[in-house]
Structures are given as C-alpha cells and as structure tokens.
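Quick question about two entries, pasted in order.
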Amino acid sequence: MFITSIFKPKIIRQLEQTIGKKLEKLDTLYVGSVGYVQNERNQITELSLYECGLKELPLSIVKLQNLTELDLGRNQLSNLPSSIVKLKNLTELDLIGNQLSELPPEIGQLQNLTVFDLSNNQLNQFPKVLLDLNLEVKMAYCRFYGDEGIYIEGNPFQTPPVEIVEQGRQAIIDYCAALEEQARPLNESKLILIGDGGAGKTSLMKRLLGLDFNPQESQTHGININALTLQHNDNDIKLHCWDFGGQQIMHATHQFFLSKRSLYLLVLDSRRETQVDYWLKHIQTFGGNAPVIIVINKIDENPHFDLPQQRQLKKRYPNFKQVCRISCATQQGISELIRTIQDTLPDIELLNTLFPAKWFKVKTAITEQAQKTNFTSYEHYVDICQANGITKESEQNTLINFLHDLGIVNHFQDRWLRETNVINPQWITEAVYTIINAPQLAGNGKLHRELMSTLLDNDTYPVRKHDYIIELMKKFELCYALNDNEYLLPDLFPTQEPNFEFDDEHALHFILEYDFLPKSIFTRFIVRMHRDILNNTYWRNGVLLTERTSNTTALVETDSNRLVLQIAGQQKREYLAILLFILKDIHRSFNNLTITEKIGLPDNPNLTVNHVYLLKLVQKGQTEYLPPENPEKSYNIMDLLGIVAPPSETEAMRMLQKILSILEAQGIEQEKDLLDHVDEVVKLNPGIFGVSIDVNALVKKMLRR
C-alpha cells in the first residue's frame, strides 16, 4: 500500500471532516504513521493508521465507502466489528501485528480483497470464512504490495495444525472435510535425547523403556529409535524416542531430525564439563521453543555436581523447564524423571492435534508395514489411502506431507525422490551416518558411487536405492556432485589450510557474528557455491571462490561463531551481495538466529563497524563515521554502506542472474518458488540490493526473457 504521509494535525482535521469526530482520540494515541490518498473527487481511497495504538476500530471508518486499501498494522485490535464489510471496495487489508483471535463471519463478504495480511495475530483456529475469499493461503509475510493472498505467518494455529496450514488452501479444505466425519487426538510426539557423546543417552533410553543397564554400552554412531508410552490425564501418550549419537560430525545433520513438535532431554555427564549454552542454543535453533529437560547423569560417580546459574539459563532459554539428577547405573532419580516428563507433556506443541479417523487408519497401516520393510512406493501409499476411503488426490498429498512433517515417513516432492516413501526413518539416518563416519572418507570427503556397496549392507540398502540415498544427501546439502560417480562432503574436508594466494590488502571485509553458528550453515554454503570454488581450494573451515566472468575472488572462512568474507577484484560489491543473499537464504531454515553484521574499514580491516549502526547514523543525517579506536580519520558513511548496497539496476540484474542460476542448481525451477526465495530474503534484508530497486519486477523480467 502506497501512502502519502503528512503532518498529523492536518490529516486529523481532514479525517474529522470526512468521517466524524471519533478520530480525535488519535491525538493522544498516535505513536506511528498516519496517512491517506485521495482521488480526484477528494474521496479517501487509501488510509493508513499504522502503529497508532488503536484498541478498537473507529466505527466512523466504515463511512469511507471508497476505500480500496486500509492499513491497520501494529495496533492493539482484539476484534473487528462486523460492520467492516461495508467497505466493499477494499482490495488490500493489512492487520499485521494485532491481537485478533477470531474474525467476524461477515469478513467473507469482502470479495474484492486480493491481499489480506493477518500475520502475527493470535489465531489458534484457522477461520474457515477465509476460504470464502478464494485466495491462496500463505504461511509467510506479505513481501511486496500487490502479492495476492492471505498471509498468516506468526499465528499459534492448533486447528488445523500448522503443518496443514503451511500446505495452503486446498490442504486446509481437505483437513476440515476429513475432520467433519470423525476425529481423535493424535497423542503422539517425539522424545529426543541429545548431548555430548558418552553422556549416557542410550543407557537412559533403556532405563525409560524398563530395560537393564549395560555398563559396557557402546557409543551410538547413528540414531536409535524406540517407542515409549506414558499416561497423562488418563490418556496413553506415545513418544517416539530418538537417541542421537553425540559425535561432532553428526551435528550438521540435526537440522533434518530435530523439530518443534518434540520434548528434548539434554543429557549431561556429571563427571565432565559440558557446554550447556551450546546445546540449549542448538535445540532452540532447530526446535524453536520446544520444551527441554536437562538430565544430569552419573551422579553416583559425582554426587555433588549440579547445574550452576539455573535462573539465568531460564531467562535466556524460556523453553528450559527443569533439571533432573539421575544415575542410570543405580536407577536413582529415574522415576522422578518420568514424572517430570509426564508433567511436561502439555508443553509439547500440538500434542493433542485432532487427527481424522480415516487418516489414522492410513497411518496405522504404514506403521505396521514399517515393521517388515523400510520403504515403499508412492503407488502403494495411494492404494492404502483408497482402501481407507481417501480417494481425492489432493487429500492424499495433504496427508503424506503431514505424515512427513510428523516424522512418520520421509516423503519429498523432488523429481528423483517422490516415488519412494521411507516408512522407517531410521533406515535413511543410519545410511547417512554410516557414510559420514566411514574411515575411507575421513580427511578428504570424497565419496565414490562404487564405495556405497562396501559401506552399506546390501540386503538393507539394495543397490537400486543407492541413487535415492545420494540424491537425499544432495537435497540435505550434505554433499555435491563432482561428476556422475564422485561426490564431495564438505564436513569431511581436510582440516589443514592449503597454500594459495589472495589479495587481502585490497579486499572488502564483511563479518557475520552469530550468537550461535550452526555447523551446517557453512557446509550448505559451500554446497551451494561449489561451482565457484577456485582450483579445489577448500578446507574444513574455509573456501576460496571466484566469479570468473568478473575476475573477482572471495575468501570465506568460519572462525568460532563468525563467518568472515573477504572480496577482491573488479566487482567486489556485487559478489559480496550474492554471497550475502545465499547466506541469508540459508538462515531462513533456522530459528532464533541472532546475527550482527560488521564492515571492515577499507584501510584497516581489523577495525569494524556495525552495519545497522551505520544505517542509524544515516537516518540521523550524519555523513561521516569516526571510529573510536582511531579518531584521527573519518570515513564517508555512504561509501561504507556502498560496500553492501549496490545502487544501480544494471548491477542488480547481474547479481540476480547469478542468484537465479544458483537457486535453479538447487532444483528450484518454478517461477513462483524462485520468486518466493528472492522476495523473502530481499524483504527481510532490503540493503542487499538497494532500497530504490524493485527486485520483484526485475526477477519477473529476467525469468520471462
């Protein structure tokens, strides 16, 4: 919505004349931007009351019969009056960031709406009336005005569950229709045991399952999956227990198995110092706000050990619920831990999700089949659906995607993966972990296709499924293809930095500082940029890249919780923007990442300045930056910001061409999907391309050449 902003007193007087005195209260409530647009007959067609502290909608607004765009974002509205339907000419309605928990049934009468933004409200039930608007439902934020759809990101949906809502309008219709026949609570979730290797996770799982303790328990080199049933409110709750190996090499794969719909047990060894903050941030990054119980094991060997500063930990990690002290050897504290798990069950997201009865039958059939085989064809899944009354193709798609989100099956829509359903998730995780732990790959990361038959048991992993496993690893961005028979795994690159030359004296320096840097971010970055690797110059913590058409090179290194980017050559600014785009696109896969961007001063890269701080200086009208470490020399702020934000459309077009080729190499080929990737990254980080450029229009222009 384009709004002409004018001074508050003037617009208040004009609005009062137009729609009545009730808007006088804006004189005291005003904290945001008020603006409007009139047509040639002095009729208000676009009205913005953004961030004005409104607790209810002034009824006088409905007198503005010519309104086509209404922005009520970032207010405190808890309900909408049904009279809003009098604004029948509305095409865009923005209610982002309010307190709405429901909508009036009449809202479906606004049939001219093309954009309806309900992001960041309090809707726990998807309002069925929105389906009457015949707009696509998008679990995203509205990125560019004119993007049609209903935007609903940031709402605490329970019915339908968020996994269904994410699939869009047709999935919501399928779920609601199936729910009307018969339903029951799912009462299932994951119990994930995580922590350092040797902490006793496997022994703890055995104790929870009522099995004997083995003092010689071997260390887990993959994932053990078992089922545990506990009682809560007279209901059986089935917990799928996932015991993760603690080796550092496996942490990069956690992104594919850790989820929000889980309860986490962080297992610590009382005899050793453990990075509790690392693990809590690790869980938060992949599992969102899923509840965590910290379990201190082996207290029989160190009875005085306790977790320090628990109060501060709970402030930093609100999902941290309790500490339990146990000994798997003596069973001390095990019964108390089980009671704590039972008490924490209500905190698991969507534990009581309603599951349609016929969907349950399909789920049960697949679960029973998984006792006999590890995978099945999609055609067989369709046969199971049809045998249980699910005949519509759209409902079959909705259900299989939901079962995938729940971790019951692995199903992907990619061309090389969609015909196989893995109905035993442990089958694929064991294959991946066997490969990344193979001694033959250590220190070089090179996987030959023929080696698969040596590494994997041929009965469990027949040769005809080797391509599936490799394609899945490529999808997970664990590896990339050198040719038809060889693949490289960046996590297994040599640790020793090779000899190479790089002009760091004339390079741009840009640093990303993370409060927590997931190991997989750098791995995935290398996979996406592997076509630019210069002369095989890579190692575990760094890579040398080149943009060959412009004679520009980039040295990218990971250092503790930092990524350091140095760019040298003819188009430093453009190549930096491309690399930042790829990194920010990867960041979208993670929760709660806190990243500080810093720019190295041109003649002294060891001195850095916060990128956001520079932007704030510009807003205040300042033109020069004086580094406190060296106050004798000042720097032009726009020159420093120019490192990050290319100003011209020509430069942006070149960057976008490169970015689209990288995204297409990932298998993102549809115009809609490409636009979604570019739109979302640019909306969240407009400085990448410069605020004056309509990137959305440029992408469409390029795609249609």
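Here is the second entry:
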Amino acid sequence: MAVDGVAAAARILDLHDVPIVFLTSHTERHYVERVREVTSYGYIIKSSGEFVLLESIRMAFELFNAHRRAAHREEELRRSRERYRDLFNNAPVGIFQTDSRGRALSANPTMARMLGTSSPEEAIERFSDLARQVYVDERRRAEFLRLLREHGHVDGFEYEARTLQGDRRYFRMNARMHSERPDGTFFIDGFSTDVTERKLAERALEEREEHLDTTLQSIGDGVIVTDLEGRITRMNPVAEQLTGFPFQEASGRALHDVLRIINTVTGERADNPVMKAIRSGAAVEMANHTKLISRSGREYQLADSAAPVWNRNQDMTGVVMVFRDFTDEYEKTRQLSESRRFLQEVFDAMQDGISVVDTDMTITAANHWMAERFSDAAPLEGRKCYEAYRHRTSVCQECPVARTLETGEVHGHTTQVETADGRSWWAYLSAYPMHDRDGNVVGVIESVRDVTERSRAEKELQETLAQKDYLMKELNHRVKNNLSMVAALLSLKQTVLGDSADLWDIRGQIDAIRIVHEKLYQGGVVGSIDLADYLEDLLSTVFASFASRAVAVESRIPDVHVGSETAAPLGLIVNELATNAIQHGFDDDAEPWFRIAMEPADDNYTLTVSNSGRPFPAEIDFENPERLGLQLVHALAAQLGGRAEVQERAPATFSVRFPSPSP
C-alpha cells in the first residue's frame, strides 16, 4: 500500500521527536492543512531555491529547539507546582496567606490543625477576623501589623493564640507583606510553628528561676556560683555582705579576688575550694580553721563547702559555694575544745584510775592511769568493764559499779586485782552515779586507787603496835629487873661494908639505867639504842657530876644500835670504870683523860676503856677481886656472854670481849 509524505511524516513522529520539513510541489490547500496537522516545522515548494531550503531547515531546527525548551520549562513548572503543593500540604509548619483586615485566604493542613480545624477549607471559612478570633491579646495583632508596615517583614513574632475549640496555644510566626493597595490594605504570606511546649517549658524555667532566685535571696548563708573558670556568675545578699562586694562589681571576677580566705592557724592564704571541686568533680569541705577577710577588713570565721553543678547531660557547668559566718560558733567550739583539753589533761593527770561506764557496763572513757595498768594493746573503750579490768565474762561479785547502777548510790570496797603485766596488787574501787536531768542513772564514774602501800603500811602498823605492846611489857620487865639490880647492888654494898658503906657511886649506876630508858623513849626505832650516843651521854653525866675538874673524853664507838639488854650492862660497866678512874686513877699532876673504844672481831666486839693517871695496882687479883666494883664488872661481862680483862701497866686499861649484839 502506497504511503504519501504526510502519512510517512506522521509515522516518523510517532516513533521519534524530530523536526520535519516538507519539500513538495503540492500547493493545494487541503494538502497544506494535512501537513499542518502533522508538523509545523516547514513547508517548502520545490521551486523555492537552495537558499530558501537551507534557511527553512535552520529555522526548523531553531523552532524545534525552542519547542523542546518550552516543553522542558512547562514540565519543570508542573513539577515545581507539584513540589510546592506537596510542601504546602505536608510541611511541618503552618503556611498561610491572609489580608491585613484579618481574613484567612489560604492555609495548609498543618496550619488548619494548629487552628483546630479539620481542613484548610474549614479554616478559611471559619476565620475572617484573626485579631478577635485567634489572638488572645488583640494588641499583639496590632503590634504585628505595625512591624510589617515598618519593615515589610516580621521574623520570630510570638503570640498566644486561641484555637477553634478555645484551647490556648503559643505560635511563632515569620511573615512578609506584599501587594499593598492604595487604601492601605495588603496581603500577608508567612508560616507559623506551635511553640507551646517550649513556651511552657520556658515559663516553668522562669518560674523555677524566680523561685531559685527568691530562695537564694532568702538563704541565711552566703551563696556564690561560679563558672568552670572560677568566675562569679551569681551571688546572694549574704555573700555580698560577708565579702563586702555587691554582685554588680563581683560578677565575672575570679572568686579569689572577692572571697579572700586565709588559714586561721598559719595566716597563709587558704586553698580555693571552688577550684578543688572543679578538679575533683566532687563536693569539697573547707578546712575548719578558715577565716574570711572582707573588703572592709572585717574578719569572719567561715564554715563552707563547694559542690559541682551538673546539667542533664552530666556535664559540669560550674560550682556552687555555700558559706556562713561561723565566728561565734568557732569561738565557742574553741573554748569548748580548750575546756575539753584541760579536763582531759586533768583526767589523765589524776593519780587514781578513772573510767566512765554506761548502763550496759561498757567503758566509754578511761584515763591514762587505767590504760597503763589494764590495757593489753586493745583499747579499753567499747569493752565491758569486767572483761577489760578483771578478765571475766560476767559481772564480778560485790561489783560497786553494778550496785551503783542498781541503787543509784555511791559504793566502794577494797579488793585484789591483777594488771595487764600480771602484777597483783590491792585496789580500792569506788563507783559514783551519773544522772540525767530527770534524775535517772545514765552511767557510773568508777575510781580505782592503788592501796597496796597503804595496806602494807597498815599491816606494818598493826605489827608495830603488836611489837610495841610486846616491848612495853618487855620494858616494864626490864625496868623491874634493873630496879631489882639496883636494889641488889645497894644490898650487896650494905652487906659487905656494913653501916659505914658509901653509896655515892650508886647514883651513877642509876643514871646508867635511866639513860638507857631515856634513849629507848627518844629513839626512832622501837627497842633500839644508838650505843655511841648512849655511852657518850653517860660519860658526860658521870664526869659532870663527880669530877672536880674537866675530863677530856675520847670516844671511838662505831655506828651500832643495840637493844636495852645489851646497852644496860655495857653502861653499868662503863659507869663503874669511869667512877673507878675518878676515885683511884686520876692524879693531880696531869690533865685527866678518859678513852673508850669498841672494835668488831669476827662475831665478837671488844670494848676497851682506859684513863690517865695511876695504873691498876699489882697486888689486886683481877680474876678473883675482893672489890665490889670489880666483882660487878665481871658479873656484867658474864651477863653479856663475855669476859673482862685488865692491863697492869700504865695507862690503866680494861677490856671486855663479848658476842656481837643484835639491834
């Protein structure tokens, strides 16, 4: 089947978008109309010539390109409209157009929902007076229009809106004015976002901030807030008063420039607690001895702490420091500490053991005396008293502490205890009740006194008293014997010499016995006599009473203490020999002297007595003397368990050897 050019061109265009120029000899009207229906890029009569043909082809290409560009623009415009329509309909913000009279002209679905309507059409239909219907405060609508007229646009304009249902919301709006008319009206395009949640959060934050500020202003302590560089961002009035800096001056300054603190003890600048808190990320307590020097020079004792401030992400944002004037409390605490130290020193300096026991018989305090006597490396405090002091598992019998807790009265008794080192000693335990304000017994003060020496002294005193009784009996017995001896001497002399007997020497013998008892009475040791002192005193008495002139006495008696049973016979021997020297020994040509000495030898003593003058007569038998005085010397020496001897050459010398006397 034959196809003409028009049909061929139609089929080509069905397959390809290309420009087609007809070169034909047809000039018929109906043929030209057929070609126009297929394409309009060119129609050339064959007789037109080459130039016309080429220009027609070039123009066909230009027209083709122009058609393609126009088609592309049309497609882009269509797509742009579709995108705008999608954006308009699906935008998360409300898009609107209104006029300056307050009539809604268009709105996207988001804007419709923000206004409480079900569709943009309902929004346009319902809202014809935005100032009255939407704005809670109509003055905000007037302010919005004023800004538009002044600047042509408004960005970030916020207002409280009312929805169709009457709910209160907060909107944020950006808008532009355009197409201003001669009568002053204009159109407004813009978009809005619902910022209700943010606005409510801001309002809550403002309320919290206001509450915080009110709280901060009301706190009785000083409060300073700093950033992470230690610069002040907030202060309350108390902090202003203590530092002397108003917040306007202190804001932004480093804390150490405003809060000047020193160590009370050393006088040196104290460490900055804020920087410590920043470095450690933890709360920091200021040292107890911290002093603040205010701007005016006034000094305050401070008690404070600094703690980091964290945000919701646990990031440190700064530090808050709280401090207060601790001056009065510090002084009271210092005085209390001094009192406690003084009382503790007194407590520890006591020469008796002191401990405090609660109602459960647990030791709550003990002084050094108790610790030294009873501590076995473990502290006494916190232990039961019967466990710590007596190594028992239950309360001791007759325990004064238990009795005081039971009766509320003072109790005490003496008992034998054993210390931590194993030493046993005697102690007097006494317990004193401690009462509260209501008179209830809340504890016991236990006193422990070491009475070992006192007990020993009491025992010795008892023994001494018993010995004294014995010695008094013995003394009476000896006095009776010595008086019997004197009576015997008098009787003996009277018998031998008859009525003509001279009794003057009896006085010396009586003095010898008297001085013995006098020394016993005056001596520091019961029943003991200092022999040298006794014999020297006796010779002084003899020579002062009977000698017509002074006698030089030389005594060499060692430091010996003897009993009266030894001193009396020795005194009588010395008295007899001294009397004999006065009567028979001393002559008128030389100065008289009398010597007495006593020396130890093995278990014996030898008493030697010599005097100046004539020697002992050779015709007298000393072993069997007839003279009463010599007989007395022999008898007394025998009483001492010894014997007497005489030296016949000058000077006259007598010696008595006897066993060592017991004191």
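Reply: The radius of gyration is 69 Å. The domain at 465-659 is CATH 3.30.565.10 (Heat Shock Protein 90). Hope that helps.
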